[in-house]
Design a protein that fits this description.
Layout: H1 3-25, H2 28-36, H3 40-67, H4 74-90, H5 95-106, H6 111-142, H7 148-182, H8 186-203, H9 210-237, H10 244-258, H11 270-281, H12 286-323
Amino acid sequence: MTRKNLLRALNLALILLLFGGLFYYVNFPEILTILRTASLLPLLLAVLAGLLAGYVSSIELWILARKQGLTFSINDLFFLNLSARFYSFFSPLSSIGTFVRWQRLSGGEKPAEGLVTIAFNRTLDILVAICAGLFWGIAAIGRFSINLPLVVSYLVGFMAGIWWLLKASANIAGWAEQRAKAASHPILKAVFRFIVQLFLSLSVYKTFSVSELLILALTALIGELVSLLTLVLIAVSVHITIPIVDLGWMRPLLFLASLSPFTLAGGIGIREVSAVVIMVSLGIASGQAVAFSLLSYARAAVVSLIGGGVELVYFFSRLGTRAR
């Protein structure tokens, strides 16, 4: 057995073990009952919210692409993201979606610019998810009412942090380059090389004006809030009563779990088990937690299927263009 096949076998074994343990501790007929009685309207609204989140994300990508000289409309990037999401969700390798996005964004003429745009976009998404999770986590600990001065202070601090990272990125990359040269251990050398690449990609955007950075940060935060709304709607559909602050710090954890390599199509695996473990720890019935997790996956699948329809239209449009 080759190393690649061995890793696939271990991946599948881990996922089967996780789901085996999951369904051992929950009542499967109870889950089916909850799914049958789920409210359809909140689920439909969750799908629409998912599309809205994708459109907001396309605005963010548009701002980054313009800085690299890539001329696309927001609508073009929205449909491009939907197509890429289809490939990422249903392909055994989620990186195929990233490749499709990079290939079409670069147009075969600006591969470096397209790659930097995608890398920074993903870095920003992860950074925003972590910052949002910390914010909601602090709110959940104190159980305080979120007031306007607190939100404004947080937004100012968040944007100031990104601004500092952009301005200091070249210096940090230079420092990491020196550390990489001085490191004797291969792992340390690889880590510092990765830091160099990360902050060099950030340095490309250090010429952002204050207004551009403000729009970018607000767009990213709005996208995070719309994504949180999808979880709220799914929780409502299966009659789960949970404070929004708890869903707020859960969402980044589930997002990061979906990036794990130990998943099946669409990230199913660690993410689903993580959602159940967290919700059960908050006092939610295991059956409801599993139903919530499965419906979250189903919502993502529907949005990705819409992306498949977009990709089909794109395929036939290219055939028509070639025929002419």
